[in-house]
Task: structure prediction
Amino acid sequence: MSSTADADNSKIKRTLEVYQWTIKDFDKLSDKPGLGLESPIFSSGMDNDQWNFHFYPRGRNEDSKDYFSLYIVLDKTNKPEISVRYKLSIYNFTTGGRDFVKGSQVRFSTAMSSGMRRFVKRSEVFIRRDNYIVNNELIICCEFDFEMRDEFGFSSDSIPKVNSVTNDIWSFFERSKFSDISLVAGKKTFHCHKMILAARSTVFSAMLEQNADSKTSRNMEIQLDNMEPTVAREMLRFIYTGKVKKFDGKMIAGLLSAAEKYKLSDLKVICETELYGKMCYDNAASTLITAHLFHLKELKDHCIKFINKYLSKVIHTTGYNNLEAEYPALLGELLRAQAADDKGRAACNTVPNRTIKEEI
Result:
């Protein structure tokens, strides 16, 4: 993305490890969902990396129109991946501090983004406008913490984390302690706990209630049809801990299928977020297919915009070939969006110094 037009209206400066983006003329920003502002490129000085911010003052889509959406994007690096722990925030002019701090730890690759669709409610900012918007300027902050290893290979990520309640509950599953129900996937049997399954899934809850008075309820067994044992284990990890440990293409597809079947909406969100964060030229088309098959509208819209922007690279991938061969209707939808985008871009070219534009 070019940031030439945006650079006239904003600036990036480095304060130790914190990067600040000053957005000028805030009240002139678009009030339409999905229209965003792109910051100038900046670098941390690590591995010739180049970053920028994507900011949507009215949210990235209709579902987030009452929020600011904010993302950090790795535009370029000379390494396959960069492991970063980042924190996004808004500068408080009154206290000199940073508020609404949110972040994550992510392994970035080129053209990959990470952030929050619902970063902060607009009302929370505007109710204390004098703290956050001064002289019609808003300052976005980002603190980077790169994974650094010393000569002995020590990493800050190797420090043991304190056990939580979920770790303890998961240990009961792994040791089959006090289990009272079995789930079977293929030839693998998992010894589980009815209370946990019922609390986390309305589908499992209905199954258990239906058999609560039967003589076999104490030795109840549920078949997880058409589910690989590895997928079943990760689904159960999510049910017990709210987390997923292992991700790859086949795993995510299996987990999305399980999430739909057993009404695990948060698992679906985790998978969608993982796909969004790992999108690159090579997997964009296959990710679009996955988003289409599992009705992930927000991810699907993002894929279409991403592919249309980097079409010259995506068109040579296996995923795009599969899209052409197996999903003609979806390909047609992609091409129609590209035509509409080209038409809109041509119209934008007639407006000088336009700083608000649609982002991926």
About this structure: The chain has a mean pLDDT of 81. The chain has three domains: 14-147, 165-277, 279-348. The longest helix spans residues 328-348.
